[in-house]
Structures are given as C-alpha cells and as structure tokens.
Amino acid sequence: MIVVSKTTIEKNETFKPSWYTVDADNQIVGRLASKLAMVLMGKHKPVYTPHVDTGDYVIVLNAHLVRFSGRELAHNEHPYLTEKMMKKEYDSYSGFPGGRKVQTGLQVWQRHPEKILHEAVRRMLPKNKLGVKMLKKLKLVCGNEHGYQAQQPVELPGHLLPK
C-alpha cells in the first residue's frame, strides 16, 4: 500500500499577513524579542516556508518600557532600570580605523528608546535580504497609541507571548 502525502509550499502571491499588537510594558527584552522574531518569520504558522516571508506584522506598544533582567535600580525617567542595562554595551562602527563607538544600554535608551528592542529582534532574524524584509514588519511605538488602526490589528495570542 502506497501512501501519497502532499506538501504545500506557500507563495508570496497567495500569502496574506495578519497584524498583531503587543504591549511591551515590563517585558524582558530577550524573551520578548525571541517571540517577536518567531512571529515575524512566520514560524508560529503551519504554512511556514523558510524561503518565503510568511510572517505577520507586529506593532509593539510601549517599546521604551522594556527591561533587562537583574537587580532594579532607582531612576527618575526609566521605571525598570536594572544593573544589566547599565552594563550592556552597544557597538557601532564608522568603517574607519578607530571608528568604534560604545554606548551603554542607558545611553541608547535616552537617545533612541525603541532601538534596544529593535536591535534584539534584528539579531534574531536571518542575516539576508529576507531578514531585512521581515524586520520592516516590526513597528515600534513609544506610547499606547499607534497609527495603524486601518489595518485592524488584534492582540497577539497568549501562547505566543513570553511567560
């Protein structure tokens, strides 16, 4: 007896992405970023295809209120400041000899608060053209209001959120 099973492969032309919202208030950066990367890649769906962008759009509210694990410190502006955030270093390179710049997590948060979560998610996505396309579907908002009501986003299901 021969059993024939068919494998379906998703195509860019037939795939329609969904829109989700996530509240990042008091969420740990790494745990949230890994879940967001999984949704952006589409690994939470049964139609996941590695060479096709089957991921969904994600709107992250309160992206400036994410936190690192570790002992909390008192700070006037950031309610969830921790020791790990003070020690975390973000490197940037100008491309010239000696052009390396190092900033702490607090310095990055003061200038571009959404960049902390953006960098964490970017580093978890594929390092190719498809990864760049997936990252463009991540919308980070510092606050509770977003301008994507026309897309009718829904809350991200609980099984896709970090515990």
Describe the structure.
The protein is an alpha/beta fold and 163 residues long. Helix content is 25%, strand content 15%. The protein contains 5 helices and 6 strands; from the N terminus they run βαβαββαααββ. It has helices at residues 29-41, 83-87, 105-111, 115-122, 129-135; strands at residues 19-23, 57-61, 89-93, 100-104, 138-140, 154-155. The strands form 2 sheets. The protein has a 4-stranded parallel β-sheet, with helices on one face. Strands 3-4 form a two-stranded antiparallel ribbon. α1 (29-41) links the parallel β1 and β2. α1 packs across α4 (115-122). The longest helix has 13 residues, at 29-41. It is globular. The model has no long low-confidence stretch (mean pLDDT 93).
Summarize the structure.
Helix content is 25%, strand content 15%. It is α/β, with parallel strands linked by helices and 163 residues long.
- SSE ordering: EHEHEEHHHEE
Q: State the end-to-end CA separation.
A: 46 Å
Quaternary class: single chain
Q: Which term fits the overall shape?
A: globular
Which sheet architecture does the biggest sheet show? 4 strands, parallel
Which spans have pLDDT < 50 for at least 5 consecutive residues?
Answer: none
Summed over residues and divided by their number, the pLDDT gives a mean of 93
Radius of gyration over alpha carbons? 18 Å
Per DSSP, the total helix count is 5
Structural class: alpha/beta
Helix content: 10-25%
Strand arrangement within the widest β-sheet reads 5-2-1-6
Strand elements, count: 6
Strand content: 15-25%
